[in-house]
Here is the input.
Amino acid sequence: LEFRRVLFRSGILMKPIQTVGIIGLGSLGVLYATLFTRALGKERVLVLADSSRIARYREEGIWCNGQLCDFQYVDAAARTEPVDLLLFAVKFGGLEGAIATCRHLV
Here is the structure.
């Protein structure tokens, strides 16, 4: 329901957000991944990265406010279906590479 209000633009109701992809797990990426996971559920929020980065996330863990995060990590190159919302939470220097990695998900 909250997302429907946000999606109402210029009298046109846009398609509801069913899947969210997030690339980048710095402070903003972790914040958005946490909030979207709470709102939509783990199965609908994808933290996108390459396989080596995913292995590091799983080994080291990702923490938010002292709590271990339980995200769904997905190899961006292996994902074939587009997502409804794609968030880039990377520094400017990594943006071009992140766009290239996830271009096929739009």
